[in-house]
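protein under study:
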Amino acid sequence: MVIKALLAVGALFLVIFGIKAMQIMKMVSTKPPMPVTTVTSAPVKEEDALLRSAEAEAELARQDLERTRGLASQKVVSKAELDTAESKFRRLNAVVDQMRSNIRKKTIVAPFDGQLGIRQVNVGQMINAGQQVVSLQSLDPVYIDFALPQQHLQSLSTGLEARVRTDALPGRELIGKLTAINSVVDTVTRNVTVQATLENPDHALRPGMFIKIDIVLPEKHKALVIPGSAISYAPYGDSVFVIEKQKDEKTGKESQVLRQQFVRVGEARGDFVSITTGLKAGETVVGTGVFKLRNGMAVAINNDLAPKPQINPTPVDS
């Protein structure tokens, strides 16, 4: 399973005319001012000067319009002169709006709060339209995409608890929720993609991390479980080797022999796998090395070197 950011984007320059300064700012609810501290290139400075000149002309046109309206109310000027003043005011304001729009196109504004990655360009570098400048990742919350076999589909529902562990945070378990289940099953693997969402206020989890995840199902029932290493998986059916006592008819001595028993496996958790059919409680099965065994082989039990299966295994780094 791999962690992904809830929101991620590569910031792109869409307009490159006159761009030489990189301008990246956080989106806020109010209209942000033009970041003059980043306007370093001659073309951008020229545009800034032209904008201020256009704003001054528009302000003068506004004042002229107010005076003309006052004179028109006193019948001092004609209606044509008033219309000309109003037209000039609207035209100059349209010029100001157009220049502001052109400058805004050359400023990168983040569409959401997040953390920037390593920038891909340097200040002063000429770039092309559509070229990525920097990546932006939303780290709280994060979502996790993973796949489950189709036989578990009926047990899944949004809102189930998801428990997440990773080697990057030893001894720590993070809790999230199942938030989405894909509507289709993969035709090759017969797995269904599931998504969990996890709060990440300290940004301990990063997109791309490998994690281990457990989904806590609401059903609570007793299950017969054995170590996963005890199962011999095969295309014609999964099986285990059961140790049985057998009495020799000639000598009367008892010995232990193997019986291959086909089983149907259920859910897996940690090193254990549940068995739905094929075994009974109390039967003894071989836990490791099943690929070396055959039906009817005589054996002796020795658990000195047997590994201990765990619900939450944590391998020791070598």
